[in-house]
Amino acid sequence: MKQWDIYLWELPHGQHPAVILTPSPWVETWNELNVLACGSQRAQRLPDAHEVLLDTADGLDWETLCQCHRVFTATRNELKHYRGRVTAERRRAIGRTMIRVLGLYLT
Length: 107
Prior knowledge:
Layout: E1 5-11, E2 14-20, H1 24-27, E3 32-37, E4 51-54, E5 64-67, E6 72-75, E7 79-85, H2 88-102
Antiparallel strand pairs: 1-2, 1-7, 2-3, 3-6, 4-5
C-alpha cells in the first residue's frame, strides 16, 4: 500500500473506491490511514466543485467521482482489492481541489 493507491473500502453498506492520502512511509507502519471516498456508481454528471473525476487510467472500471471535501480514516484491513494508482494529473487536481474547498491556501 502506498499514497495515491486506490483500494476498495469495505464499509457496512458496501464497497467503495478509496484513495489513500497518508504518505507512503507512514502507510507501512500505521493501521489507520487517511483516505478520500469515491462513489461506487458510474458518474452520471460532471464533478461538483468538491469532486474530481477518476476513471480507467486510475484503475477504476468507469468514471467515478472522488470527494475531496472530507478526509476519512480507514483501517488497513478495511482496504481490500487494489484497483490502481491515481495519475499524476489527477493527483494535482485532487490537491488543488482540497486546497480550494478546505481553505488551505495562504493569503
